[in-house]
Each structure stands twice: as C-alpha cells, then as structure tokens.
Design goal:
Blueprint: H1 15-29, H2 37-43, H3 48-76, H4 78-98, H5 102-116, H6 119-130, H7 136-161, H8 167-187, H9 204-210, H10 212-228, H11 234-241, H12 245-271, H13 276-292, H14 300-318, H15 321-328, H16 334-362, H17 365-385, H18 387-394
Length: 407
C-alpha cells in the first residue's frame, strides 16, 4: 500500500504533462455554467421547456466539438489547437451570459457546445506526444483524477457564487478557460510539424474511421456513456420517487467525488498490473450493475452503497481509456483518434438522457435499471472479445485479467 501511495508515482513525467494536468484541473474548477444553466434560465423567466431546448442546443453542438478538435489538432498541432479552442470557449461562455431572448441564447448555446471540447483531443495528444508509452496509463489516470477533483471543487464553489448572482459563474468560467489558454501559449513548446498522411499515403482524415478496433472501443464506450447519463436522469427520478429530496441527490455527487479523490490513485495504481482492456471491460460491467442496483435501493444508506459500486466502476473505466487510444493511434493522428473516441461521450449525453427519461416514464423504473445491467454485460463481453486482437495489434505479451492472481 505504501508503494501505491509513494511520491514516486508522480515522478518521471515531463513538464509539458504537468502543464496540461494543472490546466485541466483549473479549467474543470471553472466549468460552472452548464450544470447551473437550467436554474439560470429559470431566473431569466424562461420555461422548463425552453431551458430544455437550450440544453439540447448545447448537446447538438457537443457532437461536433471533439471531431473539430481532432481535425485541428492533426492539422495545426495540439498547442495551437489548445490555445485557439480555449479562447473560443472563453468567448462563447461570455457571449452566453450576455445573450437575451430565446433565439439568441439558442444560437450561442450551440456555439458553446461546439467549441467547449475542442481542446480535449489536443490535450490528450500532448500527453501522448510527451509521455513514453510505458508511462501513459499512469499519466492519463492522473489527468482523470485532476479533472474529477476540479469538478468536485467547482461544484462547491459555484454553489457559493450563485448567492452573488449567476453572472459570477459566467465570469469565472470565462476567466479560468482563458487562463488555461494563456498558460498553454506561454509554457508549452511549439508544435512539431504534423504529417497529414500515413506512410502508405492514406489521408489521416479517414484513418480513424477505418480503424475497426478504435470504432469497436468507441461503440462500447458509447454504451457505457448511455448508462452514465442515467446519473442525471434515472437516478434523480428514483430519488424523488423514494421521497429523499434534491439535497440528497446533490450529496450523491459530493460522495462520488470524495471516493474518486481518495481512492482513484491507489485503485488505478493497483489495476495497472492487469491488462488494460480487461480492466476496462470489467469496469463497464461493474458500472452497469452499480447503476442497476438503484432498483434495489429505497433508503439513503442503500443508495450510498450503489454510489460506491458505480463509482468504483467509473474509476476503472476512465483511468485507462486514454492510454489505450493513444497506443492505437499513429503519431500524426493522435488528435483524430482521441476525438473519434471522445465523440462517444458527447453522443451518449445526447442519446442517454431522453432515452432514459422515456424508458423510466413509459416502461417503468425496473426496465431502465435492467437495461443498465444489460449494457454493462454487453460492455464486458465486447471488451473481452477485443483483448486478443488488441494485444496482437500492439504486440503485447499476455497480461493477467483483473482478479487473477498476479505472481
């Protein structure tokens, strides 16, 4: 255990990695607007239906954000894409705070979604570029940890800021995003000139979409993302139906964040001894079953048990996907590979909430939670089926799967 918690786990990673690490941490602390957007729009006198349209516009924009970021990363380079994407996002958030009237707000909301994640493939590409392959699982795991700590702190800070007016959320998010851009522009080294074709002349624009392993991983992650979307749809509906109130639902996020902050470094360090795709597959199952266990919960204590279960699954699922995609990608196509995979998160957030709401209301809560379990099983089966092909692709020696005895 002492070895897992050792400071050596933080050593040996280059300066450029820590710039991206710190920048994403700060950026996530400031990511306040969208989580409170419904409340803000209600204060502006908009109906719940109009607020739903605005959130939908953000979601539609999000479908193009990462593909755009991947394209620009491989054409312009990750540093320039990071700076440009972050500055565009900072400006879009400020415009949203200033927009008045539903048509203007809808247009700017789409813009916010379209530029919000342009930086993410670029940031992932920087990590892949500067961190040796052997250290990538640790590096991407640390980034995930930083992002979740930032989200948890940001939620707490945003709750305090709203007492001074929702305008403070727009101001803080715009400033923190711009700060990340400025730090990147000053401290990250200049981009290396990117190649635009593979060695056989195939344009990188089509390489990612031809990679069957990447597409299979993306599809499986989409299934998991649909399950994850029920944290914001099915879970609050279930908590409401059990009479536990909105306050308890807010506590769920705090507890999940604490679990991630405390256990993720230890758990991910232990899981690094096993085959990454096998860990990912088992984690998809654990996450699906954890969400499905909501069907059995009635009391606060029972709900907290389910939160612990699906949070452990979330940690295992999110800690290693970045390194897997980075290892699959050709050096000159890191941005598009990361963007192709990252698109599954945006698509899941677009598909999952309305699908979950429909199943919950039309077929009943039991059908929704049973679906989560089924998707988890599909993730396990699909992921394990890809273990051998991935080993051959990466020319890796067989590694133990989770929960096997390690010599």
């Amino acid at each position: 255990m002492r070895k897992l918690l050792s400071i050596t786990r933080l050593q040996g990673l280059p300066k450029s990695f820590w710039i991206v690490f710190a920048g994403q941490f700060i950026n996530r602390i400031g990511n306040m607007v969208v989580p409170f957007l419904v409340l803000y729009l209600g204060q502006q006198g908009m109906s719940a239906q109009d607020a739903g349209l605005v959130l939908g516009a953000v979601g539609v924009g999000g479908l193009v954000s990462q593909p755009l970021g991947g394209l620009l990363t491989d054409r312009w380079g990750p540093r320039l894409t990071l700076v440009g994407g972050l500055l565009a996002s900072s400006a879009a958030v400020a415009l949203l705070g200033a927009a008045r009237g539903l048509p203007a707000i809808l247009a700017v909301a789409f813009l916010v979604g379209a530029v919000a994640d342009v930086y993410r493939p670029a940031a992932a590409a920087v990590v892949a570029e500067v961190v040796p392959a052997a250290d990538r699982p640790r590096a991407y795991s640390l980034v995930y940890w930083a992002v979740n700590l930032g989200v948890a702190l940001g939620g707490l800070i945003a709750g305090l800021l709203t007492s001074h007016g929702y305008w403070t959320l727009f101001l803080v998010q715009s400033l923190t995003t711009a700060t990340f851009a400025v730090v990147t522009a000053i401290l990250l080294p200049a981009d290396r000139r990117a190649r635009r074709t593979d060695s056989d002349g195939t344009p990188t624009t089509v390489r990612a979409t031809r990679d069957r392993l990447l597409l299979a991983l993306t599809g499986l992650n989409l299934l998991n993302g649909v399950v994850a979307a029920q944290i914001t749809v099915g879970l609050p509906l279930a908590i409401k139906d059990d009479g536990l109130g909105a306050g308890f639902y807010g506590a769920v996020f705090l507890i999940s964040g604490i679990i991630i902050g405390v256990t993720q470094p230890v758990l991910s360090a232990w899981l690094e001894r096993y085959d990454r795709l096998a860990v990912l597959s088992v984690s998809w199952l654990v996450f699906g079953l954890g969400m499905a266990a909501t069907a059995l919960a009635d009391t606060r204590a029972e709900y907290l048990v389910t939160v612990c279960l699906w949070t452990v699954g979330e940690i295992g699922a999110a800690s290693f996907v970045g390194s897997l995609v980075a290892d699959l990608a050709p050096e000159h196509a890191q941005g598009r590979y990361q963007a192709t995979f990252g698109w599954s998160y945006a698509a899941a957030q677009f598909i999952g909430p309305p699908a979950g709401a429909y199943v919950y209301a039309s077929l009943g809560p039991g059908a929704l939670w049973l679906s989560c379990a089924a998707l988890g099983v599909m993730g396990l089966a699909g992921g394990l089926a890809l273990v051998a092909p991935l080993r051959r692709r990466l020319q890796l020696a067989p590694q133990p799967i989770p929960f096997e005895k390690v010599g």
